[in-house]
Amino acid sequence: MNKKLLLILINMVGLTIQCLAQGDLLITPTRVVFEGNNQKEQLNLVNIGADTAIYSITFVQYNMKEDGTFVAISKPDSGQMFADPYLRIFPRRVTLAPREPQVVMLQCRRKKDMPSGEYRSHIYFRAEKNTNPLGSGKSVSDTTQLKVQLIPVFGLSIPVIIRSGLVNVSATLSDLSMETQQDTIQFLKLTINRTGNISIYGDLVVNYSPANGKTYEIAKVKGVGVYTNINKRIISIKLNKLPGTKLSNGKLAVKYISHNEDKKIIVYAEGELDIK
Fold this sequence. Notes:
It is a single chain. This protein starts with a helix and ends with a strand. The chain has helices spanning 3-11, 13-16; strands at 20-22, 25-28, 32-34, 40-47, 53-60, 62-64, 70-72, 87-90, 93-96, 101-108, 117-128, 155-164, 169-181, 185-196, 200-210, 216-226, 232-238, 250-259, 265-275. With 276 residues, the chain is mainly beta. It is globular. The strands form five sheets. The chain has a five-stranded antiparallel β-sheet. The chain has a five-stranded mixed β-sheet with strand order 3-12-11-5-9, with no helix packed on it. A four-stranded antiparallel β-sheet has the order 16-15-18-19, with no helix packed on it. The chain has two domains: 3-133 and 141-164, Immunoglobulin-like, CATH 2.60.40; 169-275, Sandwich (Immunoglobulin-like). The longest helix is centred in the first third of the chain and has 9 residues, at 3-11.
């Protein structure tokens, strides 16, 4: 893909592709999965800031906690496998002018003796700030004054997954309950239970069916994953409704879904909750 075409696609990102942005860096796709004979993928970067930026690219390891947060680790847990020994990425450092795109190539090198299952690492993009050496620039006549400048350094990561051999995964939804905060703000709480030797990833869709009336969607959370280091994930979903009202006297129906290559919906799990 040439840079001009890539920049046009990025400008249309809200309609065409899924992206991740933090600080001044935009990345697409937001996750990479190597399955079957797939050996190469490309990451598209764009500097959406007003200044030239430098980014270093490395591999890091994270574990997901049951609340969806991540913790950095250096060694895999029992049964967990890192993907970075089988990955190559180029370049490892990029300099981007404002609005300049860059393609980063990612290559997967499988080995014949790889155990079946899922291997996961995260690609970390870290902004490098240009700084002047101490003592450079204008001289300071009053040495009793100390000036401290805090410069934020932005970084973001995306998961890279390799699946090898015989893999399987399934999910169920449990522990559905309602919680009300500040009298009218309502949340649906639930647990996604995962079984199998790979992670699961999809969207949660919540529909409300009143006792008298039509069913309509009141919440959707995209990109909800449960990685292989945990067997369940606890979710809290804010429900969208008319301000100042409460959902009552009806039923909530939840679906955990994904889409296949033909854009057809795959339903991983379903759950219902009667509310009064």
